[in-house]
Amino acid sequence: MFLSFADGMAVSAIAKLAAAIAIAIGGIGPALAIGMGVRGAMDAIGRNPEAENAIRGTMIIGLGLAEAIAIYCLVVALIILFV
Fold first, then answer.
1. Close Cβ partners of 45 (under 8 Å, ≥ 6 residues apart)
2. Is the N or C terminus of the chain more exposed, i.e. has fewer CB atoms within 10 Å?
3. Side-chain-facing half-sphere of 17: CA atoms under 13 Å
4. If we measure between CA atoms, which residue out of 16, 18, 17, 34 comes closest to residue 70?
5. Are the C-beta atoms of residues 51 and 45 closer than 8 Å to each other?
6. Angle at the Cα of 35 (from 71 to 51), degrees rounded to 5?
7. How far apart are the first and last CA of the chain?
């Protein structure tokens, strides 16, 4: 009825599943944020081409912050997997 953790394989399988779920769910948010950020930047550049440099700089900073969240999720998944 309940999982028996006496077997090391059960714990290893659960850790692998947890790591896979962590990176899968943790990758969805940054992917959506990056897509929405680039779409917004392209819309803004299309409406105001003179502000391209300012928009590009702000977009790159925002994309870097969104990508950092994905890297944090990767680190958590690796910690779950190997610790």
1. 51, 52, 55, 56
2. N
3. 6
4. 34
5. yes
6. 110
7. 27
Give the residue extent of every domain in the chain. 10-15+27-82
Contact between residue 37 and residue 66 where contact means Cβ atoms under 8 Å apart: yes
pLDDT tens profile 35-76: 999 999 999 999 999 999 999 999 999 999 999 999 999 999
Residue position matching structure tokens 């969805």: 28
Pick one of 1.10.10.10, 2.60.40.1640, 3.40.50.1100, 1.20.20.10 as the CATH number of 10-15+27-82: 1.20.20.10
